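agent> Task received from the user: take the single chain below, predict its 3D structure, and emit structure tokens. No templates, no multimer pairing.
agent> Plan: (1) validate residues, (2) run structure prediction, (3) serialize to tokens, (4) report one or two observations.
agent> Step 1 OK, no nonstandard residues flagged.
tool_call: predict_structure(input=
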Amino acid sequence: MTALEHPARRADGPGRPPARVPFPVVDEVSRHCLQEEEPETVHIEVHLPGTPDPDRLRAAFHEALRRHPRILMREARGPWYRRRYEWELTAEPDVEVVTFPAPESDALKRARERALAEAPPLTASPPIRLEVVTPSPGEGPPGAESRGSVLFLTINHTALDGPACLRVLATAAELYGGRDNSPAAPPSRAPAGAQAAQEQLPADAPSGWSPPARVAKGSPEPSPGNGMLVAELPVPRRPKGSPFTVNDQLMVATALMIAHWNREHGARPRPFRITMPVDDRPRDATMPIGNGTRLVEVPFGADELAKREWTPEATRDLLRRTSERTRALKALPRPQLGRGAALLTAPVLPVTLRAATTRGLRRAAAPWTSTTLLSNIGRVPYALDFGDAGRAHAVWFSAPARLPRGLTVTTASTAGRLHLALRWSRTLLSHGDGAHLRDLFEHYLHATEHTGPGDPAAKKKEGPK
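)
tool_result: status=success, residues=465
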């Protein structure tokens, strides 16, 4: 159940408290496990060719918040013995959401650091902020005629996810620019229920009971928190008639990237599990706002990723098996965090006791946590046309990267380009490590393009040094 589907408790009349919504399972588990050193933030950055007018943008964004009222909320206060956390819905923002920071050197770099290090508080409505940043000279896209501006959305992930906030931003773009920002039609797929009747996880899929591989430690940095690197790549092409999707190509590139990295660092081969968010919500104005994705884990056997040289034939075979697994996992019905989380958050004991239990179980289950998370937003479904400020030509997302995973991969495509964000825990990796991982990802993603029989580019390629 998404946050929007919970019935709100409202006491109508003068002086009565505002409506309240109980925390859904995802929100409560996240709330129990918050850490000050590594805030649970989602960052979105939208690059525009121009700069929006401050007053008009504030008015448009505030109206967008009112049109999606589930985003206007704060954590309600309550006694220690309460049995639920609750969101308190508000009619207006408690704080100014839209800001225009003064120009400064390394403006983009500093905005990204804030997005990773400073989570909007849950106690003020809404738990997001929007900064409009002017890139410093040299920080804009290569070859751009002007530096334009970048919209930085920072989201407290305990309350909301990236696709929901992007929906709100699309509404703001439509209000600001006066142009239609309706979502593009999604890919045609069979209904989930019909697919579930036909699909099941292939018999050759590796078992999910073994502790999966961890990302090998690189050169940790002395400061805690997350680091991030963004890159723009071509959207990988698929050989004609291929049964796999671009998402499968990204999944395989992620698995091979980490397998290569771990071999370089002497890690013993182990099975992989890669967490993949699946979002079944509509993208129009009726989209439920909250944490609405469900998580599935795509398994890989240790022997599947053990090769040192990947021929087109071997890569094609891995893509085929990955496609069968992802298709089956998407079709199978499953609660957002699995069935155990629903029991863990049942309002039987006070939330303070459930919080201690949840944190203890999280630590105990750390060895079974997936290797990494790949969140593929896919083609951004909205034009994000801000009128006189122009249409978005690049959109990056990033997801939290706390240990034990320590690394997340997030992708989206805009204007025919793939926008990749690698985010890591600084206690595991450094910026130099991130740059090497990016090079590995690009190499293996390119390799997935040349897997068709008779493809003139299908020839053995030497891996990156």
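agent> Step 4: summary for the user.
The chain has one domain: 32-182+194-447.
agent> Done.
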